[in-house]
Amino acid sequence: MKFLFNKLAFYGLLIGGVYACSVPEREDPFVGLAAARWDVGKSANFLLSDDRFTNLELEIVYMEGYKPTDYLMDSMVEFLQEITRKPGGIEIIEKEIPAEGKEYYSTQDIGDLEDRYRERYNEGNTVSVFFLVVDGSFMPDEEGFFTIGAAYRNTSMVLFGKRIFENSGGFGRPSRGTLETTTALHELGHLLGLVNVGSEMVTPHEDQGKEYHCDDDSCLMYWAVETDNVLQFTPQTIPELDENCRNDLRANGGR
Questions:
Q1: DSSP state for residue 25 in the 8-state scheme
Q2: H or E element: which one contains 81?
Q3: Mean pLDDT of 126-135
Q4: pLDDT at position 21, please?
Q5: CATH class, 29-251 region
Q6: pLDDT averaged over the chain?
Q7: Cα 22 to chain center, whole Å?
Q8: What are the extents of the domains in the chain?
Q9: Beta 156-160 vs 126-134: how paired, if at all?
Q10: What is the C-alpha to C-alpha distance for residues 171 and 148, in angstroms, rounded to an integer?
Q11: What confidence category does residue 139 fall into, taking pLDDT thresholds of 50, 70 and 90?
Q12: Model pTM?
């Protein structure tokens, strides 16, 4: 995929001389703040392929006391190296921010936090992902059902650290590293366009009862992974992408 930026010049013979006038180059619509305000999945090809961006960076911003485990960070890089084409490499940038001390965060709260703390945006040959970890829970949570993570813009995702701490470790529960990594990779999958939100399906496999998720209950992109239901089938291991999801990523520029 090539993006061409045209510079137009025209010349006119005016009274007594020749004047050259030009139209300034158009701004690149795929870099900067504006390019980070699209819907989930709309940057899937940019994240997967090397057609436009050859480097990828993860800006991980976490509230005090909720720093992600090294296992999560290493796993995210390994996951992206396996399925994306980024010859320039994949880099993690970490930053701690003050804890807000809020019990619940609404969608608006999360967006406001990104606006306040995000520093990295697509620039040059680098595509950037913003990964936020907060110290509370998601506002729409209901008793008996809660959200652990969410992808909410084309290059933005969030984990709810309080939920992860409360539901990891101990008998019959996944380790903290396993739970947060499973959830983070699932949300990253949505940013990569899975399932059917930016990476077109090669073979139909979207769950008819849970849109935007895989119908294979052993796949990383199964709907339960981003909710408390993940506790029922991810005791100590992280699910992998099934072949249908992998084929979708390959067809959209990935490996």
A1: P
A2: helix 70-83
A3: 98
A4: 52
A5: alpha beta
A6: 88
A7: 39
A8: 29-251
A9: parallel
A10: 20
A11: confident
A12: 0.87
Give the tokens for residue 228.
């408390």
Q: How far is CA 161 from the centre of its chain?
A: 17
The tens digit of pLDDT for each residue in 35-45 reads 999 999 999 99
Consecutive H or E run containing 137? strand 137-138
**Could you tell me which residues are beta bridge partners of residue 123?**
126
Q: Omega before 195 cis (within 30°)?
A: yes
Instruction: Please tell me the chain's helix, strand, coil percentages from 3-state DSSP, rounded to the nearest 5.
Output: 30, 25, 45
Percent of the chain with pLDDT over 70: 83
Coil, helix or strand at residue 161: helix
Q: Are 187 and 156 in contact (CB under 8 A)?
A: no
The top-scoring range by mean pLDDT among 85-99, 156-170, 225-239 is 85-99
Contact 130, 37 (CB under 8 A): no
State the residue for tokens 């993006």. Answer: 3
